UniProtKB/TrEMBL annotation:
UniProt keywords, alphabetically: Kinase, Transferase
Chain ranges of the ATPase BadF/BadG/BcrA/BcrD type domain: 5-308
Pfam family, one: BcrAD_BadFG
Annotated InterPro entries: ATPase_BadF, ATPase_NBD, Euk-type_GlcNAc_Kinase
Gene3D superfamilies: 3.30.420.40
Originating organism: Microlunatus kandeliicorticis
GO molecular function: kinase activity
Protein's name according to its UniProt entry: N-acetylglucosamine kinase-like BadF-type ATPase
C-alpha cells in the first residue's frame, strides 16, 4: 500500500498527515512552528531541521511506518524561497530525516492551494495573520502578496488590526468621532486609558504580529455594532484581497470570459463582513472576467499529501479523494 506524507509548515504550527493510496488518513500530528524567518528565531534553518527531525519520525510511527517506507513526501515551509541563500539548505533537510530523496520542498502557500482546490487550476487566497494569493494553471504558477507585515500583507489580520488601532487613536484624540471601536478596545484589553495602548502594543506585546492580528475579531464586532471606521477598514481589506486574486488571474493568463475557480482560507474570512464583501466585489467588478468562488475542499495539510501523491506520479483517484476528510 503506497503512503504519502504531507507537511504544512504554518507560521504558528507545523501540521503533518500520512495518507495512503485509498484516501485513508493513517496518522496526523501537530508540532511547533518551523518558521525560521520569524523575528526572535536564532536557529536559522536549524529550526526547520529540529522540528521536522522530531515530527516526521513521530507521525510515521503513529502510522505504523518508518520514514524510509514513505513513497513520497511534500514538505511546505513558511518563508521558503524568500531568502535565496537558504533554499539549498532547506531542500537538503528532509533527506537526512527520510533517508531517501523521494520528496519535494516548497512554500506553504502551495499546500493551501492544493487543499482548497484539490490540485485543480485556480487561485487560493489566504488571509490570516498575513495574506497571500497563489494560483496554478497547467504548469504556470503565480504568487501575489505575502511580503510580510512591514511592507505588505494587505488585507491580513495584522493589516486590519493596525489600521483599526490607528483609527482608535484618532477617536481618542478627537480627530475622528468616537464609535464602538474605542470602547471595545478599552474594555476587552482592560485599558485604564487609551494611552495604555502604547505600553501594551509596543512594550508588553513587543509589536508581536500574531498578538496584534488577534485583535481582528474586535474590529469585526465594532463594525457589526455600527462603527464606521471599523467597517471602512474591513471593506478596504476585502478590496485588497480582491486585488490579489485579480492580479494572480492576469499573471496566469486566464482568458477573458474563462471562469476561474477561487477559494479562500484564513481567519479573516471567518468574518461575514469581509467574506461577503470579497464575494460581492469579485463577482460584481469582474467585467469580462469570471469567477467561481468555493469554500476550501481540503485542509492545507491534506492538500500537501495530495500533492505528494501527484508528484510521485500516482495521484489519488476521485474515490480516494472522497474518503479524505474535508476542510
Amino acid at each position: 500500500m503506497r503512503s504519502y506524507l504531507g507537511i504544512d509548515g504554518g507560521g504558528t504550527k507545523t501540521a503533518l498527515a500520512v495518507v495512503d493510496e485509498t484516501g485513508r488518513v493513517l496518522a496526523e500530528h501537530r508540532a511547533p512552528t518551523c518558521y525560521y524567518l520569524e523575528a526572535g528565531s536564532t536557529e536559522g534553518t536549524g529550526l526547520v531541521a529540529r522540528v521536522l527531525g522530531e515530527a516526521i519520525p513521530t507521525v510515521c510511527a503513529d502510522a505504523g511506518l518508518t520514514p524510509a517506507g514513505l513513497d513520497y513526501a511534500f514538505v511546505t515551509l513558511p518563508g521558503y524561497g524568500e531568502a535565496s541563500g537558504d533554499v539549498a539548505a532547506l531542500d537538503a533537510i528532509p533527506a537526512g530525516i527520510l533517508g531517501h530523496d523521494r520528496y519535494a520542498v516548497d512554500n506553504d502557500m502551495v499546500c493551501g492551494w492544493a487543499g482548497s482546490l484539490g490540485l485543480a487550476d485556480g487561485i487560493n487566497v489566504v488571509a490570516g495573520t498575513g495574506s497571500i494569493a497563489y494560483g496554478q494553471r497547467g504548469e504556470a504558477t503565480a504568487r501575489v502578496g505575502g511580503w510580510g507585515e512591514l511592507i505588505g500583507d494587505e488585507g491580513s489580520g495584522y493589516w486590519i488590526a493596525v489600521r483599526a488601532l490607528a483609527q482608535a487613536t484618532r477617536m481618542s484624540d478627537g480627530r475622528r468621532t468616537a464609535g464602538p471601536l474605542l470602547e471595545l478596545l478599552e474594555d476587552e484589553l482592560g485599558l485604564p486609558s487609551p494611552w495604555d495602548l502604547v505600553e501594551l502594543v509596543h512594550h508588553r506585546w513587543g509589536g508581536d504580529r500574531a498578538r496584534i492580528a488577534a485583535l481582528t475579531p474586535l474590529v469585526v464586532r465594532a463594525a457589526e455594532a455600527g462603527d464606521r471606521a471599523a467597517a471602512e477598514v474591513l471593506a478596504d481589506a476585502a478590496v485588497e484581497l480582491i486585488t490579489l486574486v485579480r492580479t494572480a488571474r492576469h499573471r496566469l493568463d486566464f482568458a477573458e470570459g474563462e471562469v476561474v475557480p477561487v477559494s479562500y482560507s484564513g481567519g479573516v474570512f471567518q468574518a461575514d463582513l469581509v467574506r461577503d464583501a470579497f464575494r460581492r466585489g469579485l463577482e460584481a467588478g469582474s467585467g469580462e472576467e469570471g469567477y467561481t468562488i468555493t469554500e476550501p475542499r481540503f485542509s492545507p495539510v491534506i492538500g500537501a499529501a495530495l500533492a505528494a501523491a501527484a508528484r510521485a506520479g500516482t495521484p489519488l483517484d476521485e474515490a480516494a479523494r472522497d474518503r479524505l476528510p474535508t476542510a
